[in-house]
Design brief:
Blueprint (H helix, E strand, L loop, with lengths): L1 H9 L4 H27 L3 H15 L5 E4 L13 E5 L2 E8 L4 E3 L6 E5 L4 E5 L2 H17 L5 E8 L7 E3 L6 E3 L3 H8 L9 H12 L2
Parallel strand pairs: 3-7, 4-8, 7-9
Antiparallel strand pairs: 1-2, 2-3, 4-5, 5-6
Amino acid sequence: MAGSFQFQLWKIHSLRDAVPLILILSAGLFVFWLIALRIKKYRTKACALARISRKLRKLSRGKGIFRIVDEAARSDEGAWDAYFVVNNVLIVIKVFWKGLFARGEASGKTWWIADNKTQETVKNPLLTLLPKCKWIEGYLKERKAEALTLPLVVFADNYGRPQLSLGADCHAAITRNLKKWYQKNVIGLDKKADPVKIADLVQTILEK
């Protein structure tokens, strides 16, 4: 039955014969347009941070605290977009919400980031995040709130699955692979602590 229908469908001799095909193609294009529109709507930094937040909260079984850094604080050279605290582990996060390809080295001066339409060379964010993390660790230690402070660069473009060539030991991950990074860098290293106290102290750094 289906084979007969397909044969008759392609046996077009008039406009009337073409109507079913036109309707099917139009419906398919409309659905594709709606999907593309929805994906584009959620391709923003705010939505990327929301996805990262949900993922990290799930990995910490709801125990972690995720906070977004405001625009003024993230405008400096060592910009970080958010931070996440679980037990005594503090993760300082930089997000790239655009970019399906990234190449570079963990210690390199620059990274190359591109999608299907654009490409750019950016300063390696780890060069500023690593010393920032070290400074934050010292700041917290002075206030009796020691925390293992880690940098994390997340590629969160929802247009596809970002492909990274940044080295195996680079503190970078895509949103879908956060679980692998989390298990390697957090699980087993975290110790019971007061995450609220640590998060509040980090907030005082941002307010200075």
